[in-house]
Amino acid sequence: MKATRKIGYPKNFFTTIRLSFLELNKYIISEKILPLFFKWMLLSFYILIMSSCEANEEDTHPEDISNFMLIENPEKVIKVNLFYVESETSIHQSDYHLDEAEFFEYLNGYYFHKYGIGLELAQSQSLVNDELYDLRDNRGGEPSTFFMQCADSYEKDKLNIYIIKRSNIIGIAGMGRSQRVLLTYENLFTSTSPHEIGHALGLFHDDETVNIMSTTLDKQSRKHFNHVQEEKMKKRIDMINTNNAL
């Protein structure tokens, strides 16, 4: 049996109520009490860290239904291609189970229709590309790998969204530029999706926490585009629809 070292507390330590502050302080910093004090501090720190992790997971929870709005005829509409990225081995046993109608309702209802912008599915298809499927093997070069590997598959008169199953890409939930968006499957129903779509439609990062283009770690707080961003996206959509995007 593992031996347990007993800490020698002073007699009546827990029952004496008249110990002065200086005396109590002496016990805490003494070599007898110090190990127990450090254990308590370590346990408190561990609990704090675990709480923070659980709070971060709430970023994936559904948005406030009061922010949901769908309209019949958005002012600007852009067609969207969805690509489910597969490998040579996974194509025969794909485990993508995305409800595409629900996904577009989510994007439009929470983020785009209120600005007169509508995203409509053009087509969805599987794309066999081992480089994109194993993007985690290109640490540090993910953006260049993504844009190079999708150069032949994306259509210039549409928004092109590429979905990958890999969820362990270091520091990346998605990326977007020049009508192309890469999203990890687990981040589809978070503010990461409109954020990266914003990049693909020409937007840059914004310092305002509630702005969808914010880089805040609190993804649930990203809810709005500003007027300048709205107009920029609409102009970009016009260019894409006329196939004049750069």
TrEMBL record:
Residue ranges of the TM segments: none
GO annotation, cellular component aspect: extracellular matrix
Span of domain Peptidase M10 metallopeptidase: 92-226
Stored Pfam families: Peptidase_M10 (PF00413)
Single GO biological process annotation from the record: proteolysis
Top-rank taxon: Bacteria
Keywords: Hydrolase, Metal-binding, Protease, Zinc
GO molecular function, one term: metalloendopeptidase activity
Family matches, as InterPro entries: MetalloPept_cat_dom_sf (IPR024079), Pept_M10_metallopeptidase (IPR001818)
Keyword set includes Phosphoprotein: no
Protein name, entry field: Matrixin
Organism of derivation: Aquimarina spongiae
